[in-house]
Design a protein that fits this description.
Structural class: alpha+beta
Low-confidence stretches: 187-197, 249-254
Distance between the termini: 117 Å
Number of helices: 5
Helix content: 25-40%
Order of helices and strands: HEEHEEEHHEEH
Strand order of the largest sheet: 3-4-5
Largest sheet: 3 strands, antiparallel
Mean pLDDT: 82
Shape: extended
Length: 254
């Protein structure tokens, strides 16, 4: 006998259109949570910190968007997190009657979710002054606000995703550390002083088959192949009827 309220529940025959569909959630194990917590608590090295000019000639430290996204992929996995725009609110739009240039500002709320359903939201802001057209103004402001919101949402997860940049004591100490030259894995004896340059390797580029350069074999490998070919030819039997000279002959016969 059906219970009270069962008529409002979804069954195999029919689905309730008013019932919220729950997305698939993949729970973290206790070991995975401990590993993530350990990663997120770590503060960033000086090679991750960038600076831009600020007020009174001071330098303002920040974490660039590309490094922030790479760190999120490294910590959570490329398929372990996602981001979504929750809201865009236009604060002001001013258009000059004489020049036609546009100035506007808008705020963007971005949510970053993990595969277990955990999420953080934060607000980003984008603006532009005296732009020649409305389309270009909105494009620049929306991209800027979305990137700002994404970075601010990610930093709520921990130090390694940018939260440590807001620690003044940490910044005062980490900026004094000199970034030592880095050895590349491809060329162990070549030194690169720039963090980005040390990761550059043209052999790791994804190339179109029609434009991919031909890979040259090392000289040692070529010499080995030539020696193997000569050995194989020397071991081949002489063809029947050939007048090849006798090999290792000691006596001459009349």
């Amino acid at each position: 006998m059906p219970g009270v309220g069962d008529q409002h529940k979804a069954t195999n025959a029919s689905e309730n259109p008013y019932e919220e569909v729950k997305s698939h959630v993949s729970e973290y194990t206790a070991q995975e949570i401990a590993t993530l917590s350990s990663r997120l608590e770590k503060q960033l090295g000086p090679e991750y910190i960038s600076t831009r000019p600020g007020a009174s000639g001071q330098k303002v430290p920040y974490l660039a968007a590309d490094k922030c996204i790479n760190l999120a992929n490294e910590v959570f996995g490329f398929n372990g997190w996602s981001s979504a725009i929750q809201q865009i609110q236009i604060d002001f739009v001013d258009e000059s009657q004489s020049t036609g240039k546009v100035s506007l500002g808008l705020s963007v709320i971005v949510r970053v979710s993990l595969r277990d359903g955990t999420y953080h939201e934060d607000i980003g802001y984008g603006h532009i002054e005296n732009c020649k057209g409305k389309a270009a103004a909105f494009e620049k402001a929306k991209k800027e606000g979305t990137t700002d919101g994404l970075k601010r949402a990610l930093r709520n997860f921990g130090n390694i995703l940018g939260n440590c940049v807001y620690d003044k004591d940490y910044i005062s100490k980490v900026t004094k550390i000199k970034v030592a030259p880095v050895r590349t894995s491809k060329h162990p004896y070549s030194l690169e002083t720039d963090f980005a340059k040390s990761r550059w390797d043209p052999d790791n580029l994804h190339r179109h088959p029609d434009y991919a350069p031909l890979k040259k074999e090392p000289a040692a490998a070529q010499n080995h192949d030539l020696a193997q070919i000569k050995t194989e030819r020397a071991l081949e039997p002489d063809p029947i009827g050939s007048k090849a000279p006798a090999r290792n002959s000691t006596f001459d016969y009349d």
